[in-house]
């Protein structure tokens, strides 16, 4: 085994002129290998990488364009919504103003109606008072007239004799007959 290990270790000491071998010096071989791999990748992968980047760029541009279109549509819808909101606010204000004016108008109508009703009630009250006063005055007049008539009859009955009494009755009947003819 010693010969196999020696032969492997001795490979690192081979002269590089005109021969092929494996370099076991890790620090010397890594930068070279990396340079070769990167060079191969750049040479062969350049087209693929450029295509991937172009496709990605187009997707990003399309997304931005779509986003701009969507934003434009959203702005347009927002403006429409704002216009509708302004219109609704104006209508609401008109309803509020009209509602207040309608309420005021109804309030004034109710107040006027109440005043008219109170005025009518006052008139009815006054008419009732006048009627009752007239009724009371008529009753008093009737009683006074009855008492005066009774007093006069009492005085006449005590003062009159039967002949004077008959003449007075005849005169009164004559006056009533004349009054009847005038009325007819």
From TrEMBL:
This protein's UniProt keywords: ATP synthesis, CF(0), Chloroplast, Coiled coil, Hydrogen ion transport, Ion transport, Membrane, Plastid, Thylakoid, Transmembrane, Transmembrane helix, Transport
Miscellaneous information on this protein: In plastids the F-type ATPase is also known as CF(1)CF(0).
General function of this protein: F(1)F(0) ATP synthase produces ATP from ADP in the presence of a proton or sodium gradient. F-type ATPases consist of two structural domains, F(1) containing the extramembraneous catalytic core and F(0) containing the membrane proton channel, linked together by a central stalk and a peripheral stalk. During catalysis, ATP synthesis in the catalytic domain of F(1) is coupled via a rotary mechanism of the central stalk subunits to proton translocation. Component of the F(0) channel, it forms part of the peripheral stalk, linking F(1) to F(0).
Membrane protein topology class: Single-pass membrane protein
Main subcellular localisation: membrane
Cell location: Membrane; Plastid, Chloroplast thylakoid membrane
Transmembrane segments annotated in the record for this chain: 32-49
Top-rank taxon: Eukaryota
Pfam families, per the entry: ATP-synt_B (PF00430)
Gene: atpF
Similarity section: Belongs to the ATPase B chain family.
Name of this chain's protein: ATP synthase subunit b, chloroplastic
Coiled coil segments of this chain: 71-98
Gene Ontology MF: a single term: proton-transporting ATP synthase activity, rotational mechanism
GO CC annotation terms, alphabetical: chloroplast thylakoid membrane; proton-transporting ATP synthase complex
Subunit structure as annotated in this protein's UniProt entry: F-type ATPases have 2 components, F(1) - the catalytic core - and F(0) - the membrane proton channel. F(1) has five subunits: alpha(3), beta(3), gamma(1), delta(1), epsilon(1). F(0) has four main subunits: a(1), b(1), b'(1) and c(10-14). The alpha and beta chains form an alternating ring which encloses part of the gamma chain. F(1) is attached to F(0) by a central stalk formed by the gamma and epsilon chains, while a peripheral stalk is formed by the delta, b and b' chains.
């Amino acid at each position: 085994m010693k010969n196999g290990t020696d032969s492997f270790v001795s490979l690192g000491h081979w002269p590089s002129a005109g021969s092929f071998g494996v370099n076991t010096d890790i620090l010397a071989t890594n930068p070279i290998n990396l340079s070769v791999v990167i060079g191969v990748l750049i040479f062969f992968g350049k087209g693929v990488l450029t295509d991937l980047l172009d496709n990605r760029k187009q997707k990003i541009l399309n997304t931005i364009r779509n986003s701009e279109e969507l934003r434009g549509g959203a702005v347009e819808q927002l403006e429409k919504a704002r216009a509708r909101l302004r219109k609704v606010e104006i209508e609401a204000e008109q309803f509020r103003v009209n509602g207040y004016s309608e309420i005021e108008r109804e309030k004034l109508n109710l107040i006027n109606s109440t005043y008219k009703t109170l005025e009518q009630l006052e008139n009815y009250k006054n008419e009732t008072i006048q009627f009752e006063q007239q009724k009371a005055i008529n009753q008093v007049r009737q009683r006074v007239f009855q008492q005066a008539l009774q007093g006069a009859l009492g005085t006449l009955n005590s003062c009159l004799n039967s002949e004077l009494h008959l003449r007075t009755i005849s005169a009164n009947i004559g006056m009533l007959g004349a009054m009847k003819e005038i009325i007819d």
